[in-house]
Amino acid sequence: MDENSAAIEAILRGGEEEEEEEEEEEEESSKINNKGTVDNDGGWKTVSYQKRHRKKSVKAPEAFSDPQKLGSSATGDVFRSIEQHSEERRHRLEAQRAAGENAVKLSGDDVEDGADVEAASSVDNGGAEAKKTKVKRPKKPKVTVAEASAKIDASDLAAFLADITVSYESQQDIQLMRFADYFGRAFASVSASQFPWMKTFKESSVAKMVDIPISHISEAIYKASTDWLNQRSFEALGSFVLWSMDSIISDPAIHQGAAKGSKKVVQQAPSKSQVAIFVVLAMTLRRKPDVLISLMPAIREDAKYQGHDKLPVTVWVIAQASQGDLVVGLFMWINFLLPMLSSKSGCNPQARDLILQLVERILSAPKARPILLNGAVRKGERLVPPSSLEFLMRATFPASYARVKSTERFEAVYPILKEIALTGSPGSKAMKQTTQQILQFALKATGEGVPNLSREASNIFIWCLTQNPDCYKDWDNLYLDNLEASIVVLKRLVDEWKEHSVKHPTVQPLKVTLASFRKKNEKALAADEDDDRKASLKDADKHCKVLMGRLSRTHGCMKIVVFVSVALAVGAAYMSQNMQSWDLKELLVDFNFP
After folding, report:
1. 20 to 30 Å CA-CA from 566: which of 75, 99, 187, 584?
2. Domain ranges of the chain
3. CA gap 198, 330 in Å, rounded
4. Cα 533 from Cα 538, distance rounded (Å)
């Protein structure tokens, strides 16, 4: 019986092991199938593996006793118990399999949501932990330009300037750099957000821009600095001004990136404090404005100072110089900014407005007119040269269809600029050259057919004739090539002769010129076949004839006036001599006085 029990247990264990292996394989296949079903919506395909049929190992019959020896009842009991046990095992497996499938279905529907929730919760937990562990840095206090400027001590600055003057006695360039470094340390705590100079310049008027940031400097600091700057050499100050301008102009390039077509961005190190550069440059230009004129050729020829993006800086620099000397400010405006208005590339409205604001500020300064008229000629160079006067005249008197918003502003500044352009010593060599240059473009503008321009240009042309007799010769040479313009001038002389005759010191050059015109008219009428040309020549000859007649009458009247004046003078002299010899009593008797 013991042997039979052992055999039964061995068979049962073998059967259980095989059933467990089959169960594991079925569960694995079921999981794979279920996974494929759940993930089918996500793009996965169902993967299944075929069940492997293992070969059952047949143990040697010697291991078991002969069943016939056990008896028939024992044999039946043994197999019956095996079948019952196998059937119970089968029921349990089916129940477990059904329960497993239901669990997989329920969990498969929420697998994605569960994963998302878990991931979100993990992120939230991580963020919360990160927030808890993050340490806040203390914010630096914001320092304004006014606050930093208020901390500068005048006595400390004076001692510093005295020290560097002695230490670098023969090296003024180093002195000026140390001077800039002093203010750089003073304004080092001012951040770019507290001094957005480029944005401020673009949004501010010239009247407001000119005081940035120098308005925050105290009078004591300003005086100590400018007095010290006044003792520096002209050459050293020129180099210092260029260095300061380069530092300012290079600053916005850091934020603008590479230019179009370039592959690399050229990074430049920012200066220690842009506030300091503006402060020292403003004080230098206000104390020594002439330095800017000496630098004008270099500034005008170097491309890095050109362009509309540099215009606010250029206007600010010239405005600082004009604070020290109005003549220097207007000279720089005429020679550097006015050509931008007349350039072929044109000028946008914002740039035009900024340029006109500056000249309006210069001309509206106290006593600007006498100061500028007194400086109309500076070291042999005219403040407003003839070429600039021509542009101003054309901008002020355009054709009716060409008028723009800025025309009225040109009309406001033109009279004083014209007066400065025409100011000079009458009869001087320089003034004669100026009048001859003006006469040529004035005659050309007179004949262009624009009424307002023609009248203004003819006025200037006649003024040239009164200032320089040589201009009559130039007119004679230009007469036939500018016949229509000459007709306009002749007609004005005829119509307004009473007014113009007073301004002519002598009429003889005009009389000679008119005689030459009549001869040229006669020859041209004989040779020319163009009817319009002949009509113009006849019109010009008519005005010449009328004008010569008036000159003759004027000349005759002048002779009579001179004769009468001489006669009266002689008579007065004769009477004065005889009055001395006459007796007063005899005169009284002759006139029947008692």
Report:
1. 584
2. 140-252+271-324, 424-574
3. 24
4. 9
- Tens digits of per-residue pLDDT, 151-208? 999 999 999 999 999 999 999 999 999 999 999 999 999 988 888 888 888 889 999 9
CA angle, residues 9, 15, 16, in degrees to nearest 5: 85
* Phi, psi for 422 (deg, rounded to 5): -95, 0
Q: Judging by beta carbons within 10 Å of its beta carbon (0-12, 13-18, 19+), is residue 144 exposed, middle or buried?
A: middle
Could you say which DSSP state residue 344 is in? T
Token readout for 300 is 């005008």
Range 471-507 burial, b when 16+ CB lie within 10 A, else e: bbebbbebbbebbebbbbbbbbbbeebeebeeebeeb
Minimal CA–CA distance to 272: which of 242, 251, 286? 251
Pairwise CA distance, residues 281 & 274, whole Å: 11
Please report, for the chain, how many H helices and E strands are present, in that order: 28, 2
Q: What is the DSSP track for 2-59?
A: HHHHHHHHHHHHHHHHHHHHHHHHHHHHHHHHHHHHHGGGGTPPP---PPP-PPPPPP
Three-state DSSP class for residue 382? strand
* Phi, psi dihedrals of residue 382, rounded to the nearest 5°: -75, 140
Q: pLDDT (tens digit, 9 = 90+) per residue, 256-268? A: 543 444 444 343 4
Token pair of 535, please?
């009509």
* Distance in angstroms (rounded) separating the CA atoms of residues 345 and 528: 42
- What stretch of H or E contains 377? strand 377-378
pLDDT band at 136; cut points 50, 70, 90: low
What phi and psi, each to the nearest 5 degrees, are found at residue 172? -70, -30
pTM value is 0.69
Residue 157 CB coordination number (10 Å): 19
